[in-house]
Amino acid sequence: MTFAHPWMLLGALAALIPLLIHLFDRRRPRPHPFGAISFVLRSQRRTASRLRLKRLLLYLLRTTILLALPVALARPELRRASQIAAASRGPAATSIILDASVSMRYTDGTSLFEKGREQARETLRDLMPDEPANVIVCGRSSSSPPSPTFDRSQLRAIIDAAAPTFAGTDLNRCLDLGAHSLEESSVSGKRLVIISDLTANSFRLSLPPPMVTGPKGEKIRPDVVIRDAASGRQTLPNHGLVDLKIEPALQLGPRAFQFSFTVRNFSPDPVKDLEASLKVGDQVVAKGFMDIPPNGAAQKTLRHRFNAGGVLTGEVLITPDNLSPDDRLPFVITVPKDLRALVINGEPSTVRYRDEAFFVEAALNAPGSPVRQTVKDPEAGFREPFDQYELIMLLNVTVPTPEVSRQLVDFVSKGGGLFVSLGDHVDPELYNKYLGDVLPRPLRLVRTSVAPEEPDADRKAAKLGKIVTEHPIFSLFTGRAREGLMSARFYRYMLLEAEASGTTSSEVLATYEDGAPAIAIARRGQGRVLLYTSTVDRDWSDFPIRTSFLPLMQRFSAFLCGSLEEREELRGRVGEPIVLAAKAQEPVGAVRSPSGAELPTRAQEDGSVIVGPLEEPGIHQVLDASGRPIPALTFAAVIDPSESDLTRINPDELSAYFGQEGVVKGASDTQQQHRVPFWSWLIVAAAMAFFFEGVLLRK
Amino acid sequence: MELLNAQTLSKLAGVKLRARAVVDGVLSGLHKSPHQGQSVEFAEHKEYAPGDEIRHLDWKAFGKFDKYYIKRFEHETNLQAIMVLDGSASMAYQSGPLSKLDVAKTLAGALAYLLVRQQDAAGLAVVTGERFSDLPARSAAGHLRVVLDELEGVGARGTTDLFGAADHLAERISRRSLIAVFSDLFDDRPEALKRILQLRARKNDLVVFQIIDPAEITFPFDDHTLFLSMEDERRIEVNPREIKKSYLEEFATFLEAVRSTCAEADVDYELVRTDERLDAVLLRFLARRQERRR
Lengths: 699, 294
Hints:
The complex is a heterodimer of chains A (699) and B (294).
Chain A: E1 2-3, H1 17-24, E2 30-34, H2 37-73, E3 76-79, E4 92-99, H3 112-126, E5 133-138, H4 152-161, H5 171-182, E6 189-196, E7 212-213, E8 219-220, E9 223-228, E10 239-248, E11 256-265, E12 271-280, E13 283-292, E14 297-305, E15 310-318, E16 328-335, E17 339-345, H6 358-364, E18 371-376, H7 378-381, E19 391-395, H8 402-413, E20 417-421, H9 428-435, E21 443-448, H10 457-460, E22 464-467, H11 480-486, E23 492-496, E24 506-512, E25 517-524, E26 527-532, H12 549-560, E27 571-573, E28 578-580, E29 588-592, E30 598-599, E31 601-603, E32 609-611, E33 618-624, E34 635-638, H13 651-658, E35 663-664, E36 675-677, H14 679-698
Parallel strand pairs in A: 4-5, 4-6, 6-9, 9-35, 17-18, 17-19, 19-20, 20-26, 27-34
Antiparallel strand pairs in A: 1-3, 3-36, 7-8, 10-11, 11-14, 12-13, 12-15, 15-16, 21-23, 22-24, 24-25, 25-26, 28-32, 29-30, 29-33, 31-32, 33-34
Helix pairs in contact in A: 2-14, 3-4, 6-12
Chain B: H1 6-11, H2 15-31, E1 42-47, H3 59-65, E2 69-73, E3 80-86, H4 100-117, E4 121-128, E5 131-138, H5 141-152, H6 162-172, E6 178-183, H7 192-201, E7 205-212, H8 214-218, E8 225-229, E9 235-238, H9 240-264, E10 268-273, H10 278-293
Parallel strand pairs in B: 3-4, 3-6, 6-7, 7-10
Antiparallel strand pairs in B: 1-2, 4-5, 8-9
Helix pairs in contact in B: 2-4, 2-10, 4-5, 6-7
């Protein structure tokens, strides 16, 4: 507050008059003997409390009058915290940079962005009439602003229309854009106004500070005004979901998954009993509570078994805090669907465990298996209509007739899955002849590593050597699960012909120790074929009695039917583009964000599509050319976990970065601050006090 | 008549002159009245008994009834009146030419004058604090001077003690009397007035003249004032303007309470302001009594 005529404030001493009169008024009242004094005493008693209150009010009102009048005559003015001109020495072209990062969504009743918006408006109001300006709403992908202008209404409209993003921001880039735009103004002064929550991750102090190139090519350091949208708060406590890992929970069944997520606490206080929940679709399916130490992290795992397969969406939620966007983490999960499989048993037996299909049947019948199987002998099996099945399993089957073989090839080419396991009934030459079009590689001959009945057969038997664990089929077999796979013994197996050089039509997922393929896969037409070079009963191997056999058979089945997700879970990050591996037969038509906005897409030469940059977190729908969703490409977008860290930057560091002289953080200027006349209110107060004093005196 | 206002009376030295002036005013008023006073008036017949005055035999009645009847007249039962004067210190208050005590003495003297003039007996009882001085009621013309001299000597002191006055009168008055009380009735004890009104219950004719100074009714004070009690050590410093409304309410309530209490006790009550014409007060009083007698 300042005063136009400060010497008038001496008159405020008059406010002491009522007090002095009260203290020092020793006038002797006129004594008056009075006959009816009893009535005087009674009246005085009756009115004493009211009179005391009245006297006090009168004292206050009179003091108000005597205080307000001289203060009003001194012409006081309130000065708003306008730091603009503080660093200015004359008019300056001004670039107002409003931070629109996700951290500006932090709210304690009013969001930091709204406060920042108001500060931007104030900044605009505080500008002198001869100061041009422009506004940069600083998000992840801000573009160069137009030249500074005197059109205040246009700038106000930009500020009014600004909205916070869900992405982080690069204030250095915006400062450079702002500084560059100031070069176009003829006004000699240059000023950058930063309105931000000043979180440490918004600035990269390792980069050079913004500079303006003068008309002669000289570098000018602009004045920098920093307006703190967080009003100088030391910390902005926040906790947020920073990581989510989704893995199958085999122990709970084939369609069970575990969701392991990490919550970080970016505050000096611990977080107790934070509620975390797992939501699939619109339904909360699991809940838990977490304790997180100060400035620490905690991990929690929630599990859920899905009843149906398909591409499902959901999110992990924690109790919302002041920054809510990081309190939910969306995901897309592909759950295996039910499969119909025709199992053709090449060596049926009345002794169950000698039956070729015994172990396969048991594996696919296990509780929770996505496979519904029909087991037939070759004669009956080959008469079945293949198109009623998604998967056909040939277990040590004598090669079918040419006609059936053609049907099988046709079945695969139309998208069916074919599993082939070998054995004594398999004639490599006939297989190559009739089924060579679908087999990953031609069969060569059977190799025996050791006879099973030999005393040290277990030691001499072949084992698996190399496994492609990156492939979805084997992605589960890590750690102890891998041991169950590697301990299998193979006494006999089929060697395969080498692939013709330069062709990659098949892929070997597992080999024996000698490098011979154990499991090979190939795409044939729209379908898939998997060749297992040993037996699925105990004739050539003890693999069927190993713990890994059951899940592996189920995954073979799922893979062959295309229901096993082969891609990594597709999760994009807000502010960045995402690449979709679109199929040629299902071209991407459009991508819609959770709010329904259509995102820009760009097709690549390899058929993939670049989408984005993504603008908001949540589930994004991918539509084909006819507007139908492509579930397999549905993906989730999450915010940058680093944006959850609201650690504030040290103001001194900023001052040092921008240059101590040019930086203004607080209001101190006396020349151009926004003035609010205050004296008129004092006059009103005095008049009201005078009025009420009169009213009181009349009572 | 115009000369009988308070201003004029105050210029007359002594109760005798003032009382006489008031009585003259009253009498001139009475002559104009159609209700002239009759002090000797036939009242009833009484059968003759030895010792009765022969001159009062009604010969006409003897002619009619052949029996001797004696005529009895009212003047034979002389009225005994006692003027009770409150001589407490509060009666000395005056905001105008006459104090309440002056007015009380003048009214008492005038009333005594009127009574003696019609051959009634007039006595005096002066209450000053706890002290009482009495003059017995007599109808002799010379007694009037004694009463007036006594009134002349009354000075205001002590507290108002209506309780004591009532007890004293009850003890002293043996026959039915007219008791005229001249007081401001400023006795803080709630039952004091009722006590004095109980004299009415003993077949006495009771008249209360409440003498009030106009300043006590209107409370015309403006400046900061230290009010001092005239009867004791009480004092209070107040801004009169602040309490005026409350005071006026209190005082009006007090006057109304006195008036209604007197009415309930079938006692004549006259509120007398010290700035009032006293002959008008007496005429008002006499007219009201005449009205009641009818």
